[in-house]
Hints:
Blueprint: H1 11-16, E1 18-19, E2 25-28, H2 32-41, E3 46-53, E4 60-66, H3 77-88, H4 93-96, E5 102-107
Antiparallel strand pairs: 1-2, 2-5, 3-4, 3-5
Amino acid sequence: MTVRDLSxxxxxxxxxxxxxxxxxxxxxxxxxxxxxxxxxxAGRIVLGLDLRSYPDGNTREISWSAFEPNxxxxxDIEEARQAAHAALARDNFAEYRPLAEWVLITWQ
Length: 108
């Protein structure tokens, strides 16, 4: 199990996070934009978002976005941040919103 170090995040963003037993970190949907900005502000590249809900104790997950570095393999922090925000603003997001109680954010 890899535990993510969240110490570089502001207290409010860190406090809103939920760290799963397997080390994954997720935020309530309402806190996700702040988490994306805080991760980027800390120099992290947001690689993807997964929408999650836990009906009846089961995990339901939809892979929602994946950020790809440019053709040289270089990832731009700001470009990744904007891509994550754009994914949350997609036209079809409302249809999947019931599955987005939590958002798993993957970063490097």
